[in-house]
Amino acid sequence: MCPERPFPDTGGECVTIDDPFGTLGQALWVCGGQWAGKSTVSRLLARRHGITVYHYDFHDARAHQDRRIAHRVRNGSPVEDPDPETVWVETTPEQMAVDTVAGFPTRFAWALDDLRALVSGRPILAEGWGLRPELVAPLLDSPRRMIVLVPTDEFREHQVRVLSRAAAVTHRVSDPERAQRNRIERDRLVAEDAVRSAGRLGIRVLWVDGTKDAEAVADVVAGHFGPYLA
Fold this sequence. Notes:
The protein is built from ten helices and five strands, in the order H-E-H-E-H-H-H-H-E-H-E-H-H-E-H. The chain is of the alpha/beta class and about 230 residues long. Helix 6 (about 95-115) packs across helix 9.
């Protein structure tokens, strides 16, 4: 029997999810825009509530590289990473956003494989920008298991100024300033897409504007998750 899901975008189709240890069904999810503080807030919740955090970005950038290469080989694509000049300078932010969102489903499947291998008496909190509302929704028994954190434009600009990892594109390119502008605009467009998706699915969006510190934002997220953290 297909479990009932309260989300309209599933179209009534029964989605069978392989979840051998029940980890996915008990998971909590924090997604949203780059530089919203998702990782920081998740670590705070881990320390407060004794839960385990899965950092999507870390795995996506490192542990999944072999799977990324294998995926390219199967699809007849070049094995090497795309040329940074093409990616960051020559491509418009709009196309960058389209390409990024289009690539999330494949990368999400790899993250699910990581999560399936985890067993815990407490929920696993998975956080990262690639854990999109439309991808996570079929796993949820309630929209309260997910929250979307998105920086305001002003707070994103603040983060770019103060965070070294956000300050510039790290690849060598001919026009670093243009590459950085493209990346920031891409991030904004990808975040907007997550907001629209969350709105369709009835998943809460929390705008982060810098008026609350990380501890206070973590309070809001903990309140949203409520009994799942008890």
